[in-house]
Amino acid sequence: MRPRQERDGAWAADVIAESVRGVGAGELPRRLCQVATRLLPVDSASVSLAGEGMPVPLSAGDDRAAELMEIQASLGEGPCLDAARISAPVLVDDLATKANAGRWPVFAQQATAAGVRAVYALPLGDGAGCVGTLGLYREAPGVLTAREQHIAHLMARVMTVALMYLPCDDEYGDRADGTWLSELADGHDRVFQAVGMIMARLGVGADEALARLRARAFAHGRTVLDLAHDVVAQREPFDRK
Question: Domain check: are 149 and 212 in the same one?
C-alpha cells in the first residue's frame, strides 16, 4: 500500500484534474481557487502576481477573497506580501491574536471585520524565484494539519504551472503567446502609470510615490487601483504643496 501522503496527493491531483478539464487558460486561476475550498478546510482563496513595489491581484474564488487580496495590495501589508518577500509559506492560524494584530495592524483588523480569522499564504515559483502567492482564507481560527499542508503545497505547485507554463500549451485553445495572463492583470498597469505620474509631479522616487498613493487611498477608504484610475485620468491631483 502506498504511504498516506502519496495517496492524499494522488486523490487531490485527481480532483484538480477533473475540475479543470476543458477550462480555458484565462479561467484556470479562478477555477483553481475554487478547487482549493473543496480540498482544504478554507472558505475562499486568491492568487496574485509578484510585482515591483506591490503585488498584482490576479484572480479569486469569490468576492471576499478578491477584497482581501486588494486590501493587502493597497495597504502594502499582509501574509501574502510576506510570503512573496521571503519566498516561504506564512501560515496564520488566528489574526486576532496580539502578535498577529501587531504584525499586520490594519490588515488584521479589516480581515477579521470581513469574517476571516485564519490566512495561509504560499509562494508560487519553481525554485528560480517567487512569481506570486496563493492566499487561503478561513472564517474560523485553526492550524493546517500536516496532511492539509501537503495538499496546500500541491495546490501551489499546480497554480505555478498554470501561471508559468500552461499559456504555451495549445490544448486549451488559448493564445500561445501568454497574453491571456497579461490581460488578467491589465487593470493594474494603471497603478504603475499613476506612480510614474506622481514621481514626475512631486520629484520623488518610486517607493515614495507608491507610499503616497497608498496613504491617500487608505485615508479615503479606497483601493490603490481605484485611486490610480483617477490619477491617470487627472481627476485626482498630486501636486506639490
Answer: no
Q: Domains in the chain: how many in total?
A: 2
Can you list the alpha helix ranges (DSSP code H) found in the chain?
4-20, 28-39, 63-75, 79-86, 98-103, 105-113, 146-164, 179-184, 189-202, 206-219, 224-232
pLDDT of 4-15, one tens digit each? 666 767 778 788
Is this model's pTM higher than 0.90 or not?
A: no
Q: Is residue 237 part of a domain?
A: no
Residue-range definition of the domain harbouring residue 8: 4-175
Whole-angstrom Cα distance, residue 149 to residue 214? 33
Burial of 33 (0-12, 13-18, 19+ CB in 10 A): buried
- Whether the CB-CB separation of 57 and 188 falls below 8 Å is answered with yes
